[in-house]
Every structure is written in C-alpha cells, then in structure tokens.
Amino acid sequence: MFSTNSVKTGQDLVKNARQAREDRALSKRQESAAIILQCLARGFLARSRLSKRWRYELDQLIGWDSKMTEISSSEMFLIIKKFMFVFNFKTDKLRFGELCKYLVHNTETNDNAKTCYIGLSIHKQLVVSWINQVKKLLWTCCLYLDQNQPQFQTNEGDLVEVFLKMLVTFTDVVHWKALAKLTTMHAVLAQLCGRFLSYLNERGGHCVLASVLNSAVKSTQNLFVIKSGFNIAMRIISSGDVNDQVLAFTLHFLTIPAIIWHLQLKATECVDELASTGMLRRAILLFQAEGACLKNGLIPHQYSSNAVISVLCALANFVHLFILEKETLVELHTQCVSLMNQLVKFLYENTTQHKSNLTTWHPVLGYFNNSDAGHSPSMQFVKRQLEYMWEPVLVRAFFHDVLTLNSLHDDTSVPVQAEQLSKPKSKTKRRKMASSRPRQSLLPTGGRKLEYVEVKTTCLTCLLYKRSLSVFTKQLHLEMLTGLTFMDEVLCRLWRFICELGPSGGLQIFISSLSLRHAEADPYFAVFTLFCDMTSHILSILDDVEFYDLQIPFHLEELVTISSFLCRFVFKLIWSNVVKDASSPMYPIFESAHTLLLMLYNRDARRSFTPPDHWLCKDVKSNTIRSEVEKSQPRGKLIVDKIPFMLPHKDRVLLFRSFVTADKLKLGGSITFTISDSEPMVHIRIHRSRLVEDGFEQLAAMQANSLKGVIRVKFINDLGLDEAGIDQDGVFKEFLEEIITKVFNPDMNLFKVTAGGDMKLYPSPLSHLQDQHLLLFNFVGKILGKAIYEGIVLDIPFANFFLRNLQGQQHTALYSPIDELPSLDPEFYKNLTWIKRYEGDISDLDLTFTYEEDIMGSVHSHELIPGGAATPVTNENRIMYIHTLAHYRLHTQILQQTKAFISGFRAVIPKSWTSMFSAPELQRLISGDNVDVDLTDLKKHVVYYGGFHSTHRVVRWLWDILERDYSSSERSAFLKFVTSCSRPPLLGFVHLQPQFSIRCVEVPDDEDTGDTVATVLRGFLRLPSKSRRAHNYNHRLPTASTCFNLLKLPNYPSKDVLRDKLKQAIANNTGFELS
C-alpha cells in the first residue's frame, strides 16, 4: 500500500523531531548551567570582595594597614563578627593572632566601657551574641594551641603566648580594666567567666592545655607558657564537678613529665595556689582504694610503653607533691602508700617483663621498650622527683608506724644510723654512739599479730620500696638503699618489728609464709627482702671497727641469729624445690636472702664472730646432700653453687676430689699426647739451670687436657747429662716445688709480698718489667692448677684478697674492697679509715682522686676516675674516694696480671670447683690443713722400707720423740722436712701423694743401691752392718727425698742420738737427695 520511500520519510520525521527536542533540552540545560556558573562566579567574586573588605576592616582595626580611628565596642563586635564569618583556619592564623593581641591590649588598657570590647558584656542587646563570639574566639585559640604544641618553633612561640594570654584575659575579670569600677557587677561578670571556662571544659580545653604544657616542659619553654598554661588549665578544671576536677587534674596534668618540678622552679605561686585548692588531698582519697587507679583510668587496662611513661610521671609528680604538702602527707600517709603501691605495681609488672634485645636505655627504668618520651630532657627532672622517695620527710611518714610504735622489749634505745655513719666521729663520740644501742640484743619475742593495722601498713610500705628497687635503675637502686639505710633508725626499727612479728616473732614467720599464695605472701616477704637488702647495703660500707667493735647497726649476737635463719631459709627454698633457677617466682626473695647470707659468711670467714659449726646444715644430713650432688640432682648442684658452706669442709674437699677423679676418667681415653702416641704420658726434659725457662717453653702452650694427664720429668744436670732416678710422680712433684719456689720468689718480680708481718703473696704491679710477664702469669696459674688437680700440697701463702680474685668474688653484689685492704697493707688501710673518720674539712688535706707510686725512682700518678687529678676529695665524696682507691690497689693495679693468672688456673681447675670454698679454705686446699700433725693418722698410712716396721725400735723412738718431745711447730717443721710442706693434707695422710715413707739406710745416698735381702734382714733384725762406712753412717744426719715424701733414717743405736740428729737435720734443712 505504501512504498519504501514513504516509510523512510516518516521515520526521518520522527527522528528529526526527537533530535529537535533533545537539542532544545540541551540548550535549556546549558542556559541553566551558565546561569549557575555565573551565580557561583558572581557569588565567589562577591564573597571574595566581601571577605577582602571585611579582612581589610579587621586589618584597619588591628593596625595592619592604616590606623583606624577609635570606634565603639559595637562596631568592633560587628567587624570581628564579619571576620569570623569569613575566617579561614589555615590562612588567617597570623591575622587571628594579631586580633587576639589587639583584644588583649584593648581589654587590659582601655578603661572606657563604650570603646572597650569587654564593655559588650553589659550591653543588653548584644551581650548574648558577644558571649558566643568570645566562646568562638577562645576555642579557636585552643585549636591553634593544639596545632602548635608538638613543636614550639621560633616564629610560632610568640603566637602561643598570645593565644594563652587571650585565654587568661577573657576568663578572669581581674584583667577587665574598663569594668574594674563596677564592683557590683563583678559577681555577675565572674559567672560569665565561669560560663567561658565551662564551655572550654566541655570542649576539652584542659586536654589542649595539658598537651601544651607537656610540650613546653620537654622543650624547656619560657616561664610564661608554663605558668599561664597551668593557671588557665586549673581554672578550666575547677569549672567542672568535684570528681571530674580531680580526674582531669590527675589524668591530664600529673602525667606530664616533671610538671610540679617546673612549676616549683619557675612559678612558685602556682604551686601555692594548687595547695590552697586541696587538690592533692582529693586526689589521694579518690585513688587510694585498691583498684581505684585502674578503675578511674590512671592505670591503663592494656600495656603500652607510653602508658608506662605516663604512670611513671604521675608517680614522680605525686611524690613531689607529698614533699610540698607535708601536712597532707603526714595525715594521709597510709592512703599515700596505697596509692603509690598501685602505680609502682603497674610499673613493676610492665617493665620487668617487657625487656628484649630491642629495648633501649631509659634514665629511670633502665633497659625498657620505650618511645621518644623516654628520651625527653624532662626525664632527668622526673628522676630527681623520684629521689624524694628516700628523703627523710617521706621515709618518716611512710614508716610512721615502725618508727613510733612502742617496743615490746624492755630496752627501746636504738642507734640512729644517720648520726652513726654520715658524720665523722671522734673516739669519744663513737663510744657515746655505741652506748646508744639497746643494752641487750633484740631477739625474737613475738606479740604483734598479722591482723594488726600497723603490721599491714608496714608490710605495704616495704612492698612499695621493694618493688621500686626492682623497677628503677641500679644507680637509683643504690641511692634508695643508701637513703633508707642512713635515715634515722629505720633499719634497727625494722629489725625490732620483725622480732615482734607473729606469734613467736623473728624470721620464722617468713618460712611459714612459704605455704601461702603468692599474692598473700608478697607483703610479708617485702618486709623480709627490704630488710635483707638494707642490711647487705650497710654491711658493704662498714669497716671492721664499726662491725666488730662498735657493732653497728646490730649486735654480733643479733647477726648470729639473722645468719642462722638465713641458712635455714635459703636451704629450705632450694631443698624444697621452691627455687630451681632464676626464672622461679621466689628467686628475687631468694637472691636478697642469699646476698645477705654471703656477706655475713664472708665476714665470718675473714674474722669469725659465729660459734663453731654455725654454718652447717642442721635439717638434712651432709651425706644426703653430698649424695644429691654426686648424682647431679638439680637441688644438689644448686646447694653447691649457692651455699656450699652448709656442707662440712671435709665433705666439700671429698666432692672436689671426686670431681677431679670423674674428670680424669672422662679424659682418660681421649687425651692425645705430644711426645709419642704409644706412650700414655708426656715426657719433658728440664735443665736445672733453666728450670723456669724450660718448663715455660714445654708446658705453657700445652692444651688443658694434656696438662691434666701424666707428665714425666727428666732433669738434666749442669754437664748436660740426664740425672739418675726414675720419675714415679716424685720427680714431677720436685719439679713443681722447685719451679713454684722460683716463680713465687719476689726477686723474680712476678709476685710481691704484702706489707706487715703476714708476708703473703700477690701479683706484683711492676711485673711488666719482666719480659712476657702475662704469659708467665698464665703459665704459673696452670702450674698451680696442676698441683691442686694432682693433690700435691704446696707451702705458698697467698694474700686473702688475691684468693678472692681467684674465686671471682670481687664481681659479686655489694663486694667491698675496703674489707680486703688489710690483707694487702694494714698501714694503708689504717690511713684510709682515718680519712673516713676525720672530723675536719677533708679538702684541707689537698687530696685528689689520684694514686702516686714510685717506679724505679720515678713517681707516677694514676687517676682513679676520669679527670681525677682535677677532682678534689671533699667530705661529700670521701667515701667514694676511699673505696675507689682501695679498688685500685686491690684490683685495677694488678688487673692484667690477675686475669692472666686466673685464665691459666681455670684451664685446669673450673671455677665451679673452687667456688665451694672461702678464701681461707682455698688456701688450705693449696697448702694443706692449718692444724697440728695428727701422728695417729700418720702412723696408719706410713710405708716402711729397708727392714723398718711399725714395731722397730728406731720407728718407735721416732714416734715417741715426735709425740712427747716435739711441739706443734716442731712437728710442722718435721713434716716440711720430709714433704716440703708444713701442713698435713686436708683429708688426712691417706690422700698424701706420694705416700709418706720411712726407709732404713746404711750408707750415703750416692752409694745406696736400694734394698737388698741383706739390708732388709739387718734392718728388720736390728743387726749392725759389718761395713765400717755403714757403721760411721749410723751417726750421720737423717735425710729426706721430698719428691717421694721419703724419710731416710740410719739405724741409730739410741733414742738420744736419733733425737739429736733429727733436730739437727731439720734445723739445717739437709733436705733433698736424689733417689
């Protein structure tokens, strides 16, 4: 009906119509967009012109452009309103700062209410709008302060002061000069300021100011920032509820590092104002209850390093406030202790348990995973605040109950530590001081039940200080102990408190506490550990006169009681497996008790004050303990390591020999030797004229395992020929004796003898004049170790301090070098103690921290500390001088020699073997027992040769002479004649190597061919020899082969001849003849 062209034409019409509609719609949209863009552009341009004009008006107002003529307050309000409408926080910072400066100046200097901005506060129509405008201005200041506080740059420091000044001025009517005369309106105006403060408080203005102060103290900002910031912050806080005030002050301001320190230093009036508000009292009462710090947010629920720093700062500021407000401290001392215990407990739990390889050093907490806050310069002030914890004011308050309670003893006079030790005293004063002690020793009596309030309070106080000792650095740890120890009579009163604690009193209560849960027992153990730490600290300072003669701070009888309990307590912890290693929960308590126990034991080992067998274990048989050790049981090892003196000395020597035996068995099949693989021993050749040189050359480089093996010695005489004789341990013993005699001879300059009458040996400070002196010391150490390893007794008297060096005891906790100084030089020790007690001004003596010594006619000066030559000795540092000088003489001066000697000695004898012995006991291990010769024991273990036997007349005469005619010293001389050592072996003659022997001889040694059937029969039957020479020899002197411990006796015809000849031989020391 329709053609194709007609259809196409219709479609085109529809398409064209649609396109026309779309074009018209697009045109309308474009027109609308253009209108919108034009509106936006015109609006932007209008706003820009308006903003520019309004900013220009403000610039005129504040004087940036031309100076505006004086305008009314309402016009000023309108200009500021328009400016705040177009205000841009980023770009208008400086302009806003100038506005604040202008408003502050206008408010403080303009006394015309009509032209003063503050006059709008009494304008009926504009007052509400003005209040809102001021709020906006003040909050904008806070925002800028919050933005600027992380870094107080130079160009922003002035703005910070301006913003703070703005806050100060508009929140206190005192600065409103124009309204100063309207006194009737001041109450209303004060309420108006209160509204401003409340608004800032609601918006968090106090938090902003806390951040400002935090940054200010870190960067040591000027006084105004700290002073004004704190004042306005306290006014803002005071506008809230009572509890909110305390929380805001504590959480936001007391957590600022050393804020109270800075306020006291730079703004004392702020501290006075704070005290007048009673804020500290309210804070103590709010946070003192158990768990209150956690509940109220002072202690966070989760660990973080920043949280630890905040709690630390709060603790330091609280301590400082306690010092400043003494009346509050005294009145609420119990609550103060409770509050501080919560804070210190958090620090204890979150610093001691968060140490790793990534930790860094913190000046208060030591190695701790801290943030940048730990490196703040204010941490040094936090440290100073914490030092107030051991100030007398605080200590008296915290230990109030201990210091004021009446004693249950008849005698209540207690020596005052500060008077006893901190001041020099004459002999008269020392006598007076000694008489001020209790007339009778304080011994356990009991009487104070654990439920008593004073008991609980004292336990909590001790817990506070004990945790603090664990939290702070070692330096603060020692300073705290010093402060507590020398503070009045705290230590003595604490001992009295312990004696009266519990039903039976004394330290028994602490053993009973082992059965309690850890949390329940903590307060009681805190008393115990604090007492141990304080006593250990003061014992390290006391010299022998104060300890033994004046008996400061305890009677010796009291120390016997204390040491007896400590033995039981420490043993029980180990034997009951309560303490297995350093990871045990009870280990800190064990460590405190063990340290004090060792100090008392070392004192007693040097100069006894305890009864015999005092240190031995009474609860378990020594055989049982030794069995545990030999079976390598953990508790047995720990006893030998920590408290070996609880075993009898004989048992420890047996243990030592068992260690040696086990070591020999262990090494028996694995030792390789240097001379011949087919021979299970080392052969060395020694020229008698080059004894030390040959021994050093052949033995110094020998491996430790080889040195522990069998060493055979062949001597070469002056002609270069081998000497006759077979070494069956005897020649090696002779070699050891002779080489040790040479190297320990002071003429060789390796060793020196102590001053006084003791003449004990120690390394020479001038040994460096000898070639290869350190290698020689290492060699001598090996030789001495070999002698002890083989059980060869050597008569070498070492100085006591050097023996303690050999044991490594100079590195133990609270080791005091002054105690060992008498063993080096009694006169030098006397001079140092004179300096300690000198009553005048020490600086008059012109001493410095140096030590001068004469080296081959030339005086050399050594600085005891860096810059010691320029550091004078004063009354304040004389104790440090005494200990430093003693340490130099005993250790530093011979440090390298001692290290080399110990290195050689330890190559043969491990430290764990000798740590079982005290210094005097180690000397006995080297030189034998310092007792009379036990002839009964010697008779049992003697071997006879040449026809002699136990009933032979000459033998009977010999024993009878030794027993009846000889004194103890003469018997020792006889033993030295035969064995080269005047002391018997520690475990008796059964352990003498080689065995003690007596041989009947007929001819001189050079003609002696040994025992034959004829000589044995003649000796046994007491028949005289037919040889004339033998007959003559029967009237010659006895001789001895010390290398074999062999006594050679002719068959004397009578007892008198034997007596005379033996005495003559011992007096002339005929000594060794080769066998």
UniProtKB/TrEMBL annotation:
Any one GO MF annotation of this record: ubiquitin protein ligase activity
Catalytic activities: S-ubiquitinyl-[E2 ubiquitin-conjugating enzyme]-L-cysteine + [acceptor protein]-L-lysine = [E2 ubiquitin-conjugating enzyme]-L-cysteine + N(6)-ubiquitinyl-[acceptor protein]-L-lysine
GO BP, sorted A to Z: protein polyubiquitination; ubiquitin-dependent protein catabolic process
Signal peptide, first to last residue: none
Residue span of region Disordered: 419-443
Protein keywords: Transferase, Ubl conjugation pathway
TM region positions: none
Record carries keyword Transferase: yes
Location of the active site: C1043 (glycyl thioester intermediate)
Pfam family, one: HECT
EC assignment: 2.3.2.26
Domain HECT: residue ranges: 703-1075
Statement: the UniProt record of this protein carries the keyword Transferase: yes
Protein name: HECT-type E3 ubiquitin transferase
